[in-house]
Amino acid sequence: MNEGVEWALHSCVNLCWVGDHAVPAKKLAAFFELPAPYLNKQMQALVRAEILTSASGPRGGFRLARPPERITVMDVVTAIEGAESAFRCTSILADSPVGVTGRNYSGSCFISQAMNAAELAWRRELAKTTIADLRDRVAKAFPGHTGKIESGLAP
Amino acid sequence: MNEGVEWALHSCVNLCWVGDHAVPAKKLAAFFELPAPYLNKQMQALVRAEILTSASGPRGGFRLARPPERITVMDVVTAIEGAESAFRCTSILADSPVGVTGRNYSGSCFISQAMNAAELAWRRELAKTTIADLRDRVAKAFPGHTGKIESGLAP
Predict the structure, then answer these.
(1) CA-to-CA distance for A12 and A132, rounded, in angstroms?
(2) What's the ipTM?
(3) What is the pLDDT of residue B133?
(4) Which of A114, A122, A134 sits opposite B110 (nearest CB)?
(5) Residue B20 confidence (pLDDT)
(6) What is the structure's pLDDT at A5?
(7) Secondary structure (DSSP) of B30-54
């Protein structure tokens, strides 16, 4: 999994503490000392997934596109990593004595089914946690962080 | 995930139908028209994980190291892919205004925790299915396959 997932999740959580202003990638990146162009690439992926909105210009930057209660960790992971399964069935059965040449076995092969069931369990678990949940956990466990994040991302 | 996972799982299931003889990588590979040297590499990983045993010599090859009831899909996936998490926390919090320089946040960061919980759900799901389960599903759904696999792998 690419490190953009970690960066994107942290940046989404940070954006929860920003008031009504947009935050440029440069500022989001500086908070974690990350390379801004590469974080910007991740943020653009979140815009395409409609998790963030972006505005250009001197007061431009990124904002959450909807309340963090309606953005799951799954949404962010999918935006960065794509929706494709980690396990790709290449239908090797098709070339075996028990298979039919050219057939796609990704739905019917029991091995595919077991791998897909596990991936579904993974996705379901990721979908249980929202960005708002993460924000609330941080706020509860480290109440001092809120102000530091807010001021770190202020215009 | 590398395609060796698919190959290794299919080969383990196939080995369930072999009697008391060892099957060389060449024969296991030929069943699915796979490149033998690369399948051999996966089989060696299964030997290191004590899922298979290997014997050299003219009657050499691979056997299941234990009953397929005691080999889970998780065991095979871990043998091929390694036990490392797909999500790697790089502790970016350490370099932020709310972090402690040099600290490892992989256990305490709520983002890491959410990602790790999902990976655990994935592993648990994979551990629910054994190679024997897969063998039984094939035998039940496609009773004609058993004989073809047996004769395809016979010495």
Answers:
(1) 9
(2) 0.94
(3) 98
(4) A134
(5) 83
(6) 97
(7) HHTT--HHHHHHHHHHHHHTTSEEE
Check A119 against B122: CB less than 8 A apart.
Answer: yes
The pTM (predicted TM-score) of the whole model is: 0.93
Query: Which chain A residues are closer than 8 Å to B32 by Cβ?
Result: 92-93, 95-96
What's the mean pLDDT when you consider all of chain A? Answer: 95
**Mean pLDDT throughout A26-34?**
96
Q: How far apart are CA B24 and CA A110, in angstroms?
A: 24
Q: How many helices (H) and strands (E) does chain B have?
A: 7, 2
**CA geometry: angle B52, B56, B59, nearest 5 deg:** 95
Which residue do the tokens 């390694």 mark? B82
The structure tokens listed for B12 are 């383990």
- Tokens, residue A116: 């897909």
| B92 interface with A at CB cutoff 8 Å | yes
Measured between beta carbons, the chain B residues lying within 8 angstroms of A114 are 73, 126, 129, 134
Tokens found for residue B108: 């305490």
- 10-residue mean pLDDT series, chain B (155 residues): 94 93 96 96 97 93 97 98 92 94 94 97 98 97 92 91
Token code pair at residue A88:
């790709």
What is the C-alpha separation between B99 and B94, in angstroms, rounded? 4
Altogether, the residues listed in chain B come to a count of 155
Residue written as tokens 């094939």? B138
